[in-house]
Amino acid sequence: MLMKSTKRFTALLTCRNERAWLNSVIRMAQDYGFEQVLIALSDGQPTAVGNVFLRGNFSSQWLETYDRKKFLNIDPAVAYCATHSTPLLWREKIFSGKKQKEMSREAANFGLHTGMSLPFHGANGEMGILCLAKNVPPSQQVYRDMLRVTPELSLMRDYAFQGALRFFNRKINISNPILTQRELECLKWCATGKASWEIAQILACTEATVNYHILNLRRKLNADSRRQAVINAIHLGLVNGISSTYTGKPAKENGKKNKESELV
Fold first, then answer.
1. CA distance linking residue 15 with residue 18, whole number of Å
2. 3-12, 16-25, 107-116: range with highest mean pLDDT
């Protein structure tokens, strides 16, 4: 069984592009009964979600909540994976503090009821975590089912991260960034000078969600500010019809502006 899995996992090393690699990882995880997947990879111990290579199908709203509430600082799985190489089941007992219990409850609201984290430590100091989540309440049977396939999942983790290193660059190569549809929409409105609260109204979402997408845009476009992100996007041809008029200055607001959000 493990021999057959190895042959299948090796395909992760030769995917033609990042999207094909990610789709393959998600399909493999789903074959093992995990509906949601998140791959996190950083150059050493991560200090913020914005500077981590994140790929998967976790809800963007959950990731925004995780980032906004700074759950990274208290996440028991992150702390464990920083110093261990073996998988960690998301048993209820690992969420011991008040903030950790809050994090567990909020995660469940997004279908992350139980699952496991598999740490990765690269040869050049990279730190990664493969998170696999199930949308079922925790139980001893669920834990037994996960433990039964842990050897295969550990092997999948190794191939998944080895494949990911092809797309992970410490300096973040922006020659061909992969942007989500929502990121492209935020980018378009940023290019017209819209503030976060205005974009939120246009896209019918929260301002915090807009700021989360803008942080991702800055990371993917290797930019220190939203203005620089727009400029980089223009040079890459990701924003049409703006290059001749964009000055890097925000449009004048009609009295209402959240100055803090514009620092994003």
1. 7
2. 107-116
260 near 209, Cβ under 8 Å? no
Distance of CA 83 to the CA centre of its chain: 21
Which of 75, 40, 68, 64 is CA-nearest to residue 54? 40
Same fold yes or no, 2-164 and 181-263: no
- CA 144 centroid distance within chain: 28
Most confident of 35-39, 66-70, 173-177, 183-187: 35-39
Distance CA 222, CA 90 (A): 34
Which residue ranges make up each domain of the chain?
2-164, 181-263
Query: In terms of C-beta density within 10 A (0-12 exposed, 13-18 middle, 19 or more buried), how is residue 196 classed?
Result: buried
| CATH class of this structure's domain 181-263 | mainly alpha
| C-alpha dist (Å) from residue 72 to 45, 56, 69, 76, 248 | 11, 17, 8, 9, 32
Question: 131, 109 in Cβ contact below 8 A?
Answer: no
pTM above 0.70, yes or no: no
Through-space distance between the first and last CA atoms of the chain, rounded to whole angstroms: 48
Q: CATH assignment of 2-164?
A: 3.30.450.80
Q: Write the CA distances from 131 to 134, 210, 253, 260, integer angstroms.
A: 10, 24, 42, 32
Distance CA 29, CA 33 (A): 7
Q: What distance in Å separates the CA atoms of residue 228 and residue 221, rounded to the nearest whole number?
A: 9
